[in-house]
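A reminder before we start the practical. When you read a complex entry, don't treat the lines as separate problems. The point of joint prediction is that each chain is placed relative to the others, so the output describes one connected object in space. Small molecules and nucleic acid strands, if listed, are placed in the same frame. In the example below there are two entries. Take a minute to note the order of the lines before looking further.
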Amino acid sequence: MPKSVIPIGPYHPLQEEPEFFTLTVDGETVVDIDVKVGYNHRGIEKLSERRTFDQSTFVIERICGICSTSHPFAYTRAVEDIIPVEVPERAKYIRTIIAEGERIHSHLLWLGLAGHFLGYNTVYMWVWKLREEILDVMEILSGNRNNYAMFKPGGVRRDIKSEDIPLVIKKIDSIVPTLNRLKKAILDDPVLHARLKGIGILTREDAIDYGALGPTSRASGVAKDVRKDAPYGAYDKVEWDMIVTETGDVFEKVIVRVLEVYESIKIIKTCLLNLPEGEIDLNIKDIPPGEGIGSAEAPRGETFHYVRSDGTNRPARHKVRAPTFMNLPTFKVTVIGETISDATIILAAIDPCYCCTERMAVRNTKGKKIYHGQDLIRLSQEKTEHIKRKMGIK
Amino acid sequence: MKLPKIRELLEAIKALIVGPYTSKFPYKPHIPHPNFRGQPIYNPDKCVGCLACEEVCPSEAIGHEDITDDSEPRRLMIHYTDTCIFCGSCEAACIADNEGIKQSNDWELSFFDRKEAQETIEKELQLCEICGEVIACKDHLKWISEKIGELAYSSPSLYFSRLKSLGIIDENIISAVRDSGRSDRVKILCARCRRETTLTTR
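Here is the predicted structure of the whole assembly.
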């Protein structure tokens, strides 16, 4: 039987980011996949080298709208590694609080989108309503719902006012009952089990071979988390658990993310209640020549930054490696052998963020566009309907 | 099987009673939390026109324009609200006790014409009395002389601008001789003219 080729792109079937996939299919089954990145190049590294160390944090923050804390976190750690200095305790706690807030809203955003792709639009609306509470919390803590502008080399820009803490804790607590209901609804739903269990399996060996990071690797049983392996911020001072599951299918990836939200809530509350007194900023004046590396656990995995200084007030070289860069190649093992309608959710399961990943320029591609993103979502939703009908659920 | 459905039903009933989560925005104004960082706004009374905010702005959203051709030399401080990213660097760098430019709670910044998306204030400029070069804003010189106290009396530019602002010196008394030499030393001068009048090799 002749194989046919389905080009998807150059934008992603799920998120509104330019991306090019070539799915080679045999009937309904995917037999090969090719990914081309490089449609979203913005020259962030070069922009960062044109600005001062202090101003660069704002460019770095805008690498990605969702990871707008992880990138500055890794960058400021890299700059502090050049000198090297330790930031004040209070700044460490504030950084941890902001980073965990980001993790909650990122995981909830992904969960909502996953619900949408599977045809569960209620989940989508429900989860995004929860996310609003977290965004409100971030607005109270940092002054903005996103792009918090809190990080600077040597500390943080703004302090957390003690009179805001009770309101923040109340708001964070208010999402827990709804989250509990949501967790039970996901765990109990037979359709979701039938739809997600056993598809897109990333085995433990493959996860290690491909160097998968973050929830993608933790769902496959690889206990890898920068927050535990090389603690930074206040992660070694608070109690929390790393969520690791075994099988590595899409369902486990959902579970890992949902449970990580609980851990993040725990970390934020502990940090807010034990916020140490003291300075929040070191007021670094000079960055000596040298090089530094910094990493931070973004919601999608480890973000890595390299900064070289030549003694001026601007970085001489700045390199960014986003987690999706490592997670993207796992498509080779997860998508092959699955059906096209499952490909949608498998591609989304690593929570890909291409604007983080783009470090290289565009190239030309030839061919006809056949499937739009909307078509793939429709296919995916239809499969859920089909399963529901088969199981006799209205 | 039954239990999840009942749970979801409870949520649905709750949503019916509570109503939609979204607000009726265009009809009802949205009031953000007081901590919200919105559009930065200049305070013309506090701002000294030192351009520290322009220096630190990461998105180059702050600019200035010096008008020296007509009778009243002045500096226009311009904040482009369309390129501003609301990071608060300007407020943090402001030398006037962080009050010259302050982030407000204002977030409605839409315009029909992009040229309208800017906010300006005017500051009086001090020009060099010999060559007419821009030295700084009058408020800025005043701010420096207040900051360094009696040390300001070591620089004629500083103490003259201070005394003039107090109205002690008559503005109309200007020396008729302009030789860039000794007679010009006790004047408000730019750095280049100050150097020329002080050179003793001539």
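Discuss with your neighbour: The longest helix of chain A spans residues 89-117. What might explain this?
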